[in-house]
Amino acid sequence: MRLLNFISEDKITDTDLKNLEIYADKLFRKLGIDVEFTRHFIDRVNDDRNKKQITFTELARLFRESYKKYGKKIAKLGDDAEAVIKDMMTDLNMPFVLDYDKMRQEIDLVAKTIMRKKGFRTSSPEFVIEGKR
Cα–Cα distance between 93 and 99 in angstroms, integer? Predict the structure, then answer.
């Protein structure tokens, strides 16, 4: 699946997030999962506490690699499950919750927040993506 070539690597815009959601939805659709972002995710993606700007390319990699490596496991977690996707190459951490949408009969993967933090600790299950720097 190809990403749009004109995506900026500057601050993430609302349009960037819409494009990212479309991309992630296409990936996870086969598993009956719809991806959504909370308002906190949207606020945190451009936060100065990340030290280095989170880019569209990094976010797309996070979803692509987590789908390839853990998609089926994530789909089997069940309603109200919480976990964190961690990208060791970029130090991105994305806590999420699964919420079953009865009306659409699909699972919503709700990305609660995103942060760049080395050594992020959590008591939730972790889906770790390895990679070379």
Answer: 19
- Domain residues of the chain, as ranges? 14-129
In SS3 terms, 57-79 reads as HHHHHHHHHHHHHHHHHHHCCCC
Three-point CA angle 38, 44, 46, nearest 5°: 125
pLDDT in tens, the chain (133 residues): 444 444 446 889 999 999 999 999 999 999 999 999 999 999 999 999 999 999 999 999 999 999 999 999 999 998 999 999 999 999 999 999 999 988 988 999 999 999 999 999 999 999 999 876 5
| CA torsion, ordered 50, 46, 22, 30, to nearest 10 deg | 20
Q: C-alpha angle with apex 47: 81 to 111, nearest 5 degrees?
A: 20
The Cα 109–Cα 38 span in angstroms is 10
Angle at 29 between CA 45 and CA 73, to 5 degrees: 80
